[in-house]
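Onboarding guide, step 5: your first structure request.
Type a short instruction followed by the sequence, for example:

Predict the 3D structure of this protein.
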Amino acid sequence: MTKKALIVKGGWDGHEPNEVAAIFAGILEAEGFEVEVSDTLESFNSVDKLTDLSLIVPVWTMGEISNDQVSSVLKAVASGVGIAGCHGGMCDSFRNNTEWQFLTGSQWVAHPFNDGVEYEVNIMHSGSSPIVEGIQDFKVKSEQYYLHVDPAVDVLATTTFVMSEGEHSANGVITMPVVYTKKWGKGKVFYNSLGHHADVFDIPEAKELMRKGFLWAAN
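The system replies with structure tokens like these:
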């Protein structure tokens, strides 16, 4: 049976949706997926089309989705279709839609240091997820995402926010999820908060996390 993936790209250009979608399409095609890349949310209109997929990959930031479109995605994932994505392309897609946030497991709320901060991604090897097998801690220089996170997620990697100026510092040092999985009905959800710009995936570990996450979610 042919594995089918739908990448839906668009929204804010600052997250380089075209470039990120091209990288993700290349990863999936190398793994034998038949990949469709769409630049319209109308691709979410048909439940029947979505349920024929193995994987949905949103690469869309700060947009607006109709109730019917998000309902179609929710139903497709609940039926067993995987969903996987990164950064604002999945967890800052639709700020006004709490159903989307419930599905995807988190929502971006801040990046206190803005872009260009160097920080470490710490892999959690205490569990048994195949997604992080063989991957060690690594450093990135990018945005460090502060998320509001669903307590149901299975955290696979974290980052630590050091003390900085601002009212939030009254809470002390914070450890924040970077990579996680969760379930939605029969479907699997994978998220990686890296990906502010496409060149983050020049880092082998960041790209490998996406590859393994795609395969896990689509299984």
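Each response can be followed by summary notes, for example: The helical segments are 17-30, 47-51, 67-79, 87-91, 98-104, 204-218.
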